[in-house]
Amino acid sequence: MGMKKIATFNVNSVRSRLHILERWLNDTNIDILCLQETKTEDATFPSEFFHQKGFQVFYCGEKAYNGVAVASKEKPAWVSFGLGDGLLPDGRTRMVHCLFGDDLHLINLYVPQGKALDHPDYEMKLKFFDRLLKYLDKNFTPESKIIVVGDLNVAPTDMDVTNPDNKRNHVCFHEDVKKAFNSLLEWGFVDVFRKHRPGEGEFSFWDYRVKNALERNIGWRIDHLLATKPVAERSKDAYVARELRAWEKPSDHAPVVGKFEL
Amino acid sequence: MGMKKIATFNVNSVRSRLHILERWLNDTNIDILCLQETKTEDATFPSEFFHQKGFQVFYCGEKAYNGVAVASKEKPAWVSFGLGDGLLPDGRTRMVHCLFGDDLHLINLYVPQGKALDHPDYEMKLKFFDRLLKYLDKNFTPESKIIVVGDLNVAPTDMDVTNPDNKRNHVCFHEDVKKAFNSLLEWGFVDVFRKHRPGEGEFSFWDYRVKNALERNIGWRIDHLLATKPVAERSKDAYVARELRAWEKPSDHAPVVGKFEL
DNA sequence: GCGCAGGTGG
DNA sequence: CCACCTGCGC
Question: Considering only Cβ atoms within 10 Å of each terminal Cβ, which end of chain A, N or C, has fewer?
Answer without folding.
Answer: N
